[in-house]
DNA sequence: ATCGTTGTCAACGCTAACGTTGACGCCAGC
DNA sequence: GCTGGCGTCAACGTTAGCGTTGACAACGAT
């Protein structure tokens, strides 16, 4: 609110986007992402971010208005991109099976490409943000993006029923299982260590599509209780 | 450390476990669980807990030494119980398929029985606790429990390869997919709303065992990249 | 009746984080 | 060489949480 001193200068510098200014700003965003990923939003302080860059906390305010804004800058692009990609896949031609596979691999690849930005977002439960210190308006936007991702996935699952490529008795639960499997990667996936996102995505798709049951059995105690 | 005043009295009251004392303490633990679940550990303050109980923050210290201890009390029993249950299932007789199903349903049932205690634990990433304010020794214990759960699951998956009931090309990834699907429930499952944990567990097991692919197809672009 | 225990709470000191201010050294362009 | 913006940083005021202290009112046991 107080457009005083540093606030003015930041706004100005941002407007006439100086050459190296944007670059330094990106360094700060990257450092912020790492800190947020390590400690979570609430436990992170701008002091941590400054230390990681070997600079002073106050210097950050020349580039960023607040911890909240930094969080937004960290997540904004990555999340939007993932959601748009998902919607694109959902709207593609082709049977639902292959679109589901593509959605999973594409999402994993995006998680890798936007590492660790995406995981910062996944870690925070944007649904409970009203009781957190994250900016509320921003949180609503994020929740909305999450909803759109779910919608894209649901569309594929429903299409699968129609085109006969998928057999899904409980679509909403299926959605949560898929999202859970994919998003839980924030606890174990580190780009560069082990398989690539593409490999992992395909293997995950295999598992989710064909199941763990060895072929040549038809069992299934199954169903409700 | 400072065994002064209130600390002494708390220790004493705890030792000669007064009748209503334990009960009031449990109320506080329950309230703590709710607050932790709503806001996450870091964002929660003892002030929040006190307010939820309509009492004063300082009163809590008569029952609980610190926010850290409260967190431990909230998670301790639930997590231990889930892990022990998982190990029991893993050690049971029977083919791997049915044990895997049982592990999933049992876990979901425990999540329901220990709601919201278990979700408080799942929400926090105990692996990054060294950079959080949660007690480090305690965190290690929790990490160890998580490892034991994974171990139990891995045992079942391996057995499935031997007894021929499961076909799993990438066991470790399969483990992460299953755990992800199950644990992600902390974002969408509320006991009493919708299906029961037993129903959900069985449906999830169906999905993971048989996959989403409609039968009568054998496709699979499959595998690595 | 009185005394001690029990549960509570107002108040304190301390720490850490936030966002702001004002000024400093430095290099670029004139 | 002078001047002006640029990036930095020491220092400030403020807020919020922590854990502690000391006392008070209620009540049960003696």
Describe this protein's structure.
Two copies of one chain form a homodimer. Helix content of chain A is 66%, strand content 0%. The first copy, chain A, has helices at 6-15, 19-39, 46-53, 57-60, 67-91, 96-113, 117-123, 136-163, 171-183, 197-210. The radius of gyration of chain A is 21 Å and the shape is elongated. Mean pLDDT of chain A is 89; it is low at 217-225. At the A-B interface, helix 6, helix 9 and helix 10 of A face helix 6, helix 9 and helix 10 of B. The structure holds a DNA duplex (30 and 30 nucleotides).
Give a summary of the structure in a few sentences.
The structure is a homodimer of 225-residue chains. Chain A is an all-alpha fold.
Look at the structure and give the mean pLDDT of chain A.
89
User: Main beta sheet of chain A, described?
Assistant: none
Query: Please, how many helices of chain A?
Result: 10
Could you give the count of β-strands of chain A? 0
Task: List low-confidence stretches of chain A.
Answer: 217-225
- Measured between the Cα atoms of the first and last residue of chain A, the distance is 56 Å
Percent of residues of chain A in beta strands? under 5%
Q: Kindly name the structural category of chain A.
A: mainly alpha
Helix content of chain A: 55-70%
| Apparent shape of chain A | elongated
**Helix/strand order of chain A, N-terminal first:** HHHHHHHHHH
- Oligomerization category of the chains in this entry: homodimer
| Rg over C-alpha atoms of chain A, rounded to the nearest angstrom | 21 Å
